[in-house]
Amino acid sequence: MQSFDVVIAGGGMVGLALACGLTGSGLRVAVIEHQPSVQNFDPQSEPELRVSAINAASEKLLTHLGVWSRIKSMRASPYTEMEVWDNHSFGRIHFSAQQASSTHLGHIVENRVIRDALWQRVLECDDVQIISPAAIEKIHWGENEAFITLSDEQVLTARLVIGADGAQSWLRTHADIPLTFWDYEHTALVATIRTEQPHGGVARQAFHGDGILAFLPLSDPHLCSIVWSIPAPLAEQRKISDVTQFERELSVAFDMRLGLCQLTSSRFTVPLVGRYARNFAAQRLALLGDAAHTIHPLAGQGVNLGFMDVAELIGELKRLHREGKDIGQYLYLRRYERRRKHSAALMLAGMQGFRQLFDGNNPAKKLLRDLGLLLADNLPGVKPQLLNHAMGLSDMPEWLQQLSIIEERE
Ligand SMILES: Cc1cc2nc3c(=O)[nH]c(=O)nc-3n(C[C@H](O)[C@H](O)[C@H](O)COP(=O)(O)OP(=O)(O)OC[C@H]3O[C@@H](n4cnc5c(N)ncnc54)[C@H](O)[C@@H]3O)c2cc1C
């Protein structure tokens, strides 16, 4: 039987980031992951289909964890502008890095690149052990520790178990934590597209009645990753439709902004569901990332929210450990829970409001959203606040905010 202070279920982007953040804290950490990272990144390879828009707050955390330069050396594409518009009216809003007094607004990074960089970093940490491929088979919640049985019958003990095992979290289910969820009545169709005109480092999003279409700029100036959120039957139809017809429909839905679009990858679909766990912590358990919440990808904030859960929990666990407290006591985990539930609830409510406002072509709604976009684009003081939110600067825990000098551990 091996004993750990913290056992993290799930070595995705969020679970690995927490493991990296706890190294050197004096806590012994294990990560249990189904799917080992392959670690054979080829810079000439086609971009992976799953990408994330990484905001400034997450960049700061990843820099502190010593992985940002590794991520950039693999492949990351900065974007300096964001443009959002409504195809059927005059509503439009534009943001630039200059307005944020920054060199960029964020980066588009393949999920695999982030995960590989974090995995490599964890392998360098003596106090973190990755157990993979492995999954939790059983868990027993004892008075002073949790007893975890893995699929190969290995038994581990932990003072605190972390559920970073994604949207379908095994741990959340086995801890009987209720989940509020709602169907966004959208399925995301994801693909890589070559555009006739260069993207110019601009992240673009079009609202078009029955859907939302995002073009995220990749390192190649003519390649974009698209997330097309549309009703499920339409998404399933477009996933298998004739390529020429797909490209034509896509170019039109995108208002021909970058000329003709050419599909360069396979197409895959993901049903979009909002989820919000009733508790983000319990006795000897904390949930974070998609295990605690999932949101509509329209603002590209899902994993950014997860990374701020990580930042908050790093701060809390280090403090509790320094003060000699039992890190698994729900009493002590409640502060983490309260803060992160608040941030996730705000984000979920914001996404829901946006989603409803931009759904359909009801004339009153159309007028409201046109006016909203127009005012947001022009009223003094509004844009900096929106930018602050988009860059995650208002959602960082204090310790991360106070890191004024961006430091790399490497
Ligand atoms: C179409 C789309 C576009 C998106 N775009 C963005 C974006 O631009 N920006 C953004 O911030 N977010 C975006 N998101 C959200 C983002 O992808 C997720 O928030 C993020 O992947 C969640 O990371 P995670 O580590 O919490 O979970 P996951 O990535 O799901 O990782 C969970 C890990 O746990 C492992 N696991 C699961 N069960 C077990 C088990 N029982 N035992 C062991 N291991 C287990 C899995 O193998 C996996 O590695 C998008 C989401 C979608 C669907």
From TrEMBL:
Source domain of life: Bacteria
EC number: 1.14.13.240
Keywords (A to Z) from UniProt: Oxidoreductase
UniProt name for this protein: FAD-dependent 2-octaprenylphenol hydroxylase
